[in-house]
TrEMBL record:
<dbReference type="Pfam" id="PF00903">
    <property type="entry name" value="Glyoxalase"/>
</dbReference>
<feature type="domain" description="VOC">
    <location>
        <begin position="33"/>
        <end position="158"/>
    </location>
</feature>
<dbReference type="GO" id="GO:0016829">
    <property type="term" value="F:lyase activity"/>
</dbReference>
<keyword id="KW-0456">Lyase</keyword>
<dbReference type="InterPro" id="IPR004360">
    <property type="entry name" value="Glyas_Fos-R_dOase_dom"/>
</dbReference>
<dbReference type="InterPro" id="IPR029068">
    <property type="entry name" value="Glyas_Bleomycin-R_OHBP_Dase"/>
</dbReference>
<protein>
    <submittedName>
        <fullName>Lactoylglutathione lyase / glyoxalase I family protein</fullName>
    </submittedName>
</protein>
<dbReference type="InterPro" id="IPR037523">
    <property type="entry name" value="VOC_core"/>
</dbReference>
Length: 190
């Protein structure tokens, strides 16, 4: 592995003090949380079905001013915006047999890894399972699989891993309910 691939803290024995220098003259950001990820799709319908049935997302209304085919989904405090492919846009490697945890991916924290693994098996979705950090006494289970367009998804119990800021404890903002949009309840009558 090259020098640029090493962990910032372990690189040449750098400690917390050296890492904290990265934050000098960097103002606090007014950011609250990750709002959504956007995914380009070959078929919005197939992707909606996947994100609803496999991951439990809920379809929400999109602003009427959006004049392109797509769908918005929401759950777990995050949105997934699906956009219909227009023309020759490139997709990631859609080969379901190639599951590389180092590929770009989005990750969802899970409270019951066994239930999620059963769901993937029941739906016949090819996945890769691994456990990391066992030696440190806080094992993290991970499941990797792809959506219909080849985008990698990880499911993990990452809460087992301690969040240890490197020289920036005062900069960490943990999400609260404040960043979630208000929920409107409507009763639809047939």
């Amino acid at each position: 592995m090259g020098e640029e691939g090493k962990d910032l803290l372990s690189e040449h024995g750098k400690g917390e003090k050296e890492v904290s220098q990265i934050y000098e003259n960097v103002p606090r950001m007014p950011l609250m949380a990750l709002n959504h990820v956007s995914r380009l799709c070959k078929s919005v319908k197939a992707s909606v079905e996947f994100y609803v049935k496999v991951l439990g997302f809920v379809v929400i209304e999109r602003p009427p001013s959006l004049d392109f085919n797509g769908a918005w989904l929401f759950n777990y405090g995050i949105g997934v915006h699906l956009v219909q492919k227009q023309g020759d846009e490139q997709f990631p490697d859609a080969d379901p047999n190639r599951l590389d945890p180092m590929d770009n991916h989005i990750s969802f924290q899970c409270e019951d890894m066994n239930a999620m693994e059963r769901r993937l098996k029941d739906m016949k979705i090819k996945y890769m399972k691994r456990t990391i950090n066992e030696e440190e006494g806080a094992p993290i289970d991970q499941l990797f699989f792809k959506d219909p367009d080849g985008f990698m998804i990880e499911i993990c119990n990452c809460e087992n891993l301690e969040l240890v800021p490197a020289g920036a404890l005062g900069r960490i903002k943990l999400p609260g309910d404040r960043h979630n949009p208000p929920l409107q309840m409507r009763i639809l009558l047939d």
